[in-house]
Amino acid sequence: MKRWYAWRWGAAVGFALVALGAGSVAASRSIDSVPAAVAPAGDAPVNEGARDAGDISANNSPTLARNPRRRENLAVVNRIDTPRFSCSLHVSFDGGSRWSRVPIELPEGEGSKCYAPDVTFTSDGRLHMSYVTLKGAGNVPSAAWLVTSADGGRTLSEPRKVIGPLAFQVRLAADPNDPRRLYLSWVQASDVGLYKFSEPGNPILVARSEDGGSTWGRPVRVNDASRLRAVAPSVAVGPKGEVYVLHLDLGDDRLDYEGAHEGLGGRPYAGRFELVLGRSLDHGETWADSVVDDSIVPIERFIAFIPSFPSLAVDPGTGRVYAGFHDGRFGKADVLVWSRAAGDTAGWEGPTRVNDTPERDGSAQYLPKLAVAPGGRVDVLYYDRRSDPKDLMNEVSLQSSIDHGRSFGESIALSNEPFDSRIGYGSERELPDLGSRLGLLADDSSAYAVWTDTRAGSVDSNKQDLAFVRVVFTEAGGLRKAARYALGYGGAASAAAGLFMLGSALRRQRASAPHG
Fold first, then answer.
1. How many alpha carbons fall within 13 Å on the CB side of residue 67?
2. Digit-coded pLDDT (tens) for 102-113
3. CA 335 to CA 328: how far, in whole Å?
């Protein structure tokens, strides 16, 4: 079994060429639209068990948050699928070089199963974390809870119950201007069975707190009642307090929503999904729908309780809204991004095909996570199999845009080592799960990324770990510099690593062709 610390690299320098041309959905790319970047290659593990062959925990679905009062204070939460359901919180006070796991106190009588956490910081620097507790033979949510921290996550408050039974896919967001205002979104089920919601019509709800999570108002339905199979809500708050919830409408997909696949892998649902944005201008009291795209082509089967989340991001300056998801309309799987100006009712721009791979090349790019820097740069993080002719081994790539998502620069590979996409909960049923989302933050000089990594696992162990890396953006004579820094491990500069990076950049450039 390969160890993480076998890949201790120092600073290695190479130069990447800029992708030229493109057409149709892929959008045009030019040197003016490509941010120069210094990309750290030495990804480091977040969870301590990544170095322990005896720890076979399946860590996935990370959320990454940053303290606005102390910029080096980061927090990562994630769910754990095997060998038992659980969740974890890790915090860093040095920008991600070192991480510490924080004990999570469970409410009395709730057993040992916390699950599906989310995390955010409010503008006063207070950390808020949500999670659900699981009960019964079917491991269904018995309640959702909130804990807080006034010291950056070193210690947590006692848990406070905020939602009752059968609350799935709970997400948490904070108003950037009001540290007392929080929002929770979730799917409220009426009944569930093995791998399925028992019936359609389960609503997406949002609740608001005006006192930092101590009390919560009446839940309000987000999705229209005609949308009977709505899942995967992601909530975000804009710079003027506008609230957004992005979700998937599965249409007539009984295969996934009602578990007709019985938890087994196979061909995805043959119909189409809709990507829908709900918007509220009165702090979540009333909602209006906007269809981002009504022709999302599914790329996989999934368990309806733990679907892949579409990604939602809001420009903190202009309020422009960005949506991202994977889609099979142009091949096996591509990353697509749509955007709309704040207050625009004319419709959505896009989709822009983000990944700079030839169309229909047989490789999958999927599960994008979006983040917008204060200056407007849009970053997209995603899983990427372009380097494996068999389309099995993942890398993690980042691409950026400075023209509101209309075009994206060349991809930057962030992961040191490819890792197997077949490792994860459900692998024995040919339905392996790498998790519901990735973690990404962006500021004007950097991006911070966290993903699920399986390099230390196997199909037998289903071991999954969390990897972290920081990307620094810079300008260097119009050319991209790709210099490698080892975060967490250190190391001397290496000429060999520099040559490797240069060769990798050139190989990736040759593999990327104009799309007509």
1. 23
2. 999 899 888 778
3. 9
Residue 46 burial (CB count, 10 A): 29
Chain segment 218-250, per-residue pLDDT in tens? 999 999 999 999 999 999 999 999 999 999 999
The verdict on residue 464 lying in a domain is: yes
Residue 516, domain member (yes or no): no
User: Could you tell me which of 76, 3, 9 has the C-alpha nearest to residue 487?
Assistant: 9
Section 306-321 average pLDDT: 98
Examine residue 1 and state whether it is found in any structural domain, yes or no: no
Tally of domains within the chain: 1
Question: What's the length of the chain?
Answer: 516
Burial pattern 21-37, b for ≥16 Cβ within 10 A else e, equals ebeebbbebeeebbbbb
Query: What is the distance between the alpha carbons of residues 458 and 367, in angstroms, rounded to a whole number?
Result: 21
Distance CA 425, CA 433 (A): 5
Provide the residue type at 247 as one letter: H
Q: What is the CATH number of the domain that holds 164?
A: 2.120.10.10
Q: Let me know if residue 4 belongs to a domain.
A: no
pLDDT digits (tens, 9 = 90+) for 325-382: 999 999 899 999 999 999 876 789 999 999 999 988 999 999 999 999 999 999 999 9
Domain membership of residue 353 as a residue range: 10-330+342-511
User: Which three-class secondary structure state does DSSP give residue 16?
Assistant: strand
Give the tens place of pLDDT for each residue, 11-40: 333 333 223 233 335 443 443 545 567 655
Residue with tokens 């503008």: 123
